[in-house]
Amino acid sequence: MASANGLVKVQQKQPLFSFGVISDVQYADIPDGRSFLGVPRYYRHSIQVLQRAVKKWNDHENLKFAINFGDIVDGFCPKPESLNAVQKVVKQFETSYCPVYHMIGNHCLYNLPRKDLLPMLKMPTANDQAYYDFSPTPDYRFVVLDGYDISAIGWPHDHPKTMEALKILQEKNPNSEKNSPAGMVAVERRFLMFNGAVGKEQLEWLDKILQVSTKHEEKVVVCCHMALDPGAAGYEALCWNYGEVMEVIHRYKCVKACIAGHDHKGGHSIDSHGVHHRVLEAALECPPGSDAFGYIDAYPDRLSLFGTDRMASTEMVFDL
Ligand SMILES: Nc1ccn([C@@H]2O[C@H](COP(=O)(O)OP(=O)(O)OC[C@H](O)CO)[C@@H](O)[C@H]2O)c(=O)n1
């Protein structure tokens, strides 16, 4: 490919590294059902999707790691079975030859409080925190956000973070059923009980990480269960303070992509700063025999998502 200065630009063929992706397994040993809005959900089949995902990742033989974008067990899982169900899904992830990084989603928290959940997901974090970062190669850094840091689910009922979340819901959502966006308009529809926010301390931590990444010339991929751009997801799937998170991200040029789950249909957008937002299609909504998972090849100038079946493939090219 010839460039403006007449030199030939050679596109790198070998990725720097590759990693697996899957989201919203929402397994439960219950009959098939539907979402609140009537979309079919295949609770028992979803663990088979995960099984096939891990097989594909293992057959690839060269994945450095995999990322699960949250919601491993569905909220309809009968509560006495929650622990077993979470263990069963975690065990399935553990058949992966490469390490798997997890993040929490609302359905994880319907099943177990975060103090029980986090050790099972073996997050590289301290205390009850569920945000962390890691760098698989000197060129790249991954930031995993905890979008349920400020949330009405997962924390003890009298915890200050529960109180803060309930106050936000009270102010922003006029409905008595706080999972309902009825009568709410556009992005205001995100103020739902099944969403949450990134807290102040976490935002400060994110800022510091991005500062250091900029200094080290790393490219950063931000991962969060909830979406961070209204162009990539339904308004109901957005993190409460997605604007504040993106304001921090846009202070720097190092973040090249934000990847999420939560909005099961999936989506892709490029925001005004050239950051890609890719929302991954859910494993839960795969009719028997179909799949939704993938792997991403990371290059110096792009991320190439190779999706299987219902997960669309996406080329995310970015400016250096
Ligand atoms: N209008 C609504 C929508 C949902 N609910 C109830 O809220 C709980 C969580 O909903 P669910 O669809 O299971 O959440 P997911 O995390 O799977 O999906 C997120 C969305 O797709 C984001 O757009 C559940 O109990 C629903 O019944 C509600 O009451 N009213």
TrEMBL record:
The keyword Metal-binding applies. Residues 18-265 form the Calcineurin-like phosphoesterase domain. GO terms for molecular function: 2',3'-cyclic-nucleotide 2'-phosphodiesterase activity; ADP-ribose diphosphatase activity; CDP-glycerol diphosphatase activity; manganese ion binding. Its EC number is 3.6.1.13, 3.6.1.16, 3.6.1.53. Gene3D superfamilies: 3.60.21.10. It catalyses: ADP-D-ribose + H2O = D-ribose 5-phosphate + AMP + 2 H(+); CDP-glycerol + H2O = sn-glycerol 3-phosphate + CMP + 2 H(+); CDP-choline + H2O = phosphocholine + CMP + 2 H(+). Monomer. Belongs to the ADPRibase-Mn family. This is Manganese-dependent ADP-ribose/CDP-alcohol diphosphatase.
